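ok trying again, last paste got cut off:
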Amino acid sequence: MPRCEPPPEGGVGGGEPTGGYGWPGTDTDLYPQTDQEVIDAVRTAYFLDPVLPEHGFEVESINRVVYLRGVVATLDLKKLAESVAAGVQGVNRVVNELHVAQP
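nice, full thing came through this time. structure:
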């Protein structure tokens, strides 16, 4: 029976580069290079997420720092929006300025 090897140090999600959409990658030329490409990549990630609205709030990027602004329905959506944006390759940091709508 073949022996299972442990994953490489760090592994996916442990700081190892990924393509930003869940596939492994090492070529940084594939990552978003401009702020507009970062915005587009975050919006694509939101589109691919079945819970988040693609255009439910404003996404801005300045020097690969993503700013989220607007109103979301729940605190869970606010946290999810930040998490998804932070997982996009090329994003250095996320500033979550989203507000939760009052009932």
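cool. Helices lie at 35-48, 75-86. The CA atoms of residues 44 and 54 lie 8 Å apart.
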